[in-house]
Amino acid sequence: MKRILITGAGGFIGRELVNQLSKNKKNKIIAIDNNIRGNLKSIDENKNIIVEKVDVRKKEKLRKIFKNIDECYHLAAINGTKNFYEKPNLVLDVGVMGTLNVIELVQEYKVKKFIYFSSSEAYQKPNFLPTTEREELKIPDVFNPRFSYGGSKIIGELLTINYLRNSKTKYYILRPHNVYGPNMGGDHVLPELIRKLKKSTKFLKIIGDGNDSRSFIFISDAVNAIIKVANNGAQNQIYNIGSNDEYKITEIVRILCKILNKKIRIKKSPRHLGSVSKRLPDIKKLKKLKHKNKTNFIKGLRKTIDYYYFDEKQS
Ligand SMILES: NC(=O)c1ccc[n+]([C@@H]2O[C@H](COP(=O)([O-])OP(=O)(O)OC[C@H]3O[C@@H](n4cnc5c(N)ncnc54)[C@H](O)[C@@H]3O)[C@@H](O)[C@H]2O)c1
Question: What is the C-alpha to C-alpha distance for residues 308 and 315, in angstroms, rounded to an integer?
């Protein structure tokens, strides 16, 4: 039996990770979260899944969980662009202090594998597109609270690499790029656009001039890729998690309007300070692990629309 600890398990990616990993009956999942954004109630406890409310910043409580853990996926973080601007202290507290606690316990309890969830935000405005894992990481302006998040992820990577450098723990650093799907939370571009379209009949206010683009990966594909890296990836390396399904905001609005049979005029507004115009990961390393995304953007978008547009209660 492999005992796998997942922090931030009640969140968007965490829930799907619990779901996919628990399908292997040789895995025992210990799912923890403090429910600040996610919700552990959405995970069904059974003989293969233990659920516990734990804050990663509370080291002594966390210590009790760490006994006999074989693998740790560390997802707990304050995600959501709005939070980066409005709660930079909390972003740093969880991202730095919480991550340090987790890594120190990984060391102390000699956990065999550690999977750290960094982010495409660590690249900020990349020098190269598509962006490989060798791209430099940066904080363009320390005074901009947005970079509390990207900064915390850079620190998390440094902690992972340097604290685990001389240990037997194998580590894997992941840099996800725009994972999307039903129940992904509200503070991301797709739910925001879909919710706005639900309310408005004439105009749709977008952030930026509409030419900004992102490449999206559907939740089940992202988690499939994550597990592939953890099981078959090269140890002590970094992997982009994403797709080359790149779309401009104006294109997304056009597709949404077509699917929903709506006619709308786009209203542009200034882009958030520090937001980048384009993200496109190089996913050659991921492809070498024979990973293939199965859900294309239109199919995934339809599922996301079903959740945010048609299911009143959930949106
Ligand atoms: N969703 C994406 O597109 C994306 C992109 C890049 C990186 N990531 C990273 O992947 C991870 C998972 O992202 P997500 O989209 O599922 O975010 P999410 O916000 O849905 O999940 C994060 C979870 O961490 C929990 N958490 C926060 N503070 C905690 C604390 N102190 N103790 C315990 N739990 C705490 C939250 O309650 C939440 O359930 C995060 O580290 C995120 O930064 C996600």
Answer: 5
CA distance 138 to 267: 32
Q: What is the CA(27)–ligand 1 centre distance, in A?
A: 22
Q: What is the CATH number of the domain that holds 302?
A: 3.90.25.10
Q: Are 234 and 277 in contact (CB under 8 A)?
A: no
How many structural domains does the chain have? Answer: 2
Whether residue 229 sits in one domain with residue 85: yes
- CB-based contacts of 79, cutoff 8 Å, min separation 6: 11, 12, 37, 149, 185, 187
What lines the ligand 1 site, CB under 6 Å? 7-8, 10-14, 33-38, 55-57, 75-79, 94, 98, 117, 119-120, 176, 178-179, 185
> What is the tens place of the pLDDT at every residue in 259-295?
999 999 998 888 888 888 899 999 999 999 999 999 9
Q: Give the residue whose CA is nearest to atom 19 of ligand 1.
A: 79
Q: Are residues 187 and 102 in the same domain?
A: no
Other CB atoms within 10 Å distance of the CB of residue 49: 19
User: Confidence band (pLDDT; 50, 70, 90) for 313?
Assistant: low
> Are residues 145 and 220 part of one domain?
yes
> pTM of the predicted model, to two decimals?
0.97
